[in-house]
Design brief:
This is Bacterial surface antigen (D15) domain-containing protein. It comes from Thermaurantimonas aggregans. It is built from no helices and 10 strands. The chain is mainly β. It has one domain. Strands 1, 2, 3, 4, 5, 6, 7, 8, 9 and 10 form a 10-stranded antiparallel beta sheet that branches. Strand 2 and strand 3 form a beta hairpin. The radius of gyration is 16 Å and the shape is globular. The termini are far apart.
Length: 122
């Protein structure tokens, strides 16, 4: 029996959209909505993630976030995220984030992963 890798073949791509509400310079409430779009033989939304959490600024460029995860697949979890602002102007910024999603439940084994996000804030 061979090993099965979840990333081979690619089955879906998450398209995150979020809003950050900064209480002050260092703390924000963040809410993210992530539809997963299937990339198989036809295009469809096969999952939806509701992802609320908090962001803590570590410096002018770096931050850390902790999000709860509620998935329409029936799984729940946590997602710590490390973020870094690559560059900014007076009106927008581009950032790189590395999430570490942990998911549990729905009769499946616990899963731990990592990802890469490129973000545009305005």
């Amino acid at each position: 029996m061979g090993q099965k890798h979840a990333f081979l073949p690619l089955q879906s791509v998450g398209v995150p959209v979020g809003i950050n509400l900064w209480f002050d310079r260092d703390i924000a409430f963040s809410i993210e909505f992530v539809p997963d779009v299937g990339v198989g033989g036809h295009i469809l939304m096969d999952n939806f993630l509701f992802h609320p959490g908090f962001i803590r600024s570590l410096s002018d460029r770096a931050n850390i976030a902790l999000r709860l995860a509620f998935d329409t697949s029936g799984r729940i979890g946590l997602t710590p995220v490390l973020g870094y602002k690559l560059f900014s102007t007076n009106q927008s910024s581009v950032s790189l984030s590395i999430p570490f999603p942990m998911r549990f439940g729905n009769g499946l084994p616990a899963s731990f992963a990592t990802g890469v996000q490129l973000g545009w804030g305005f």
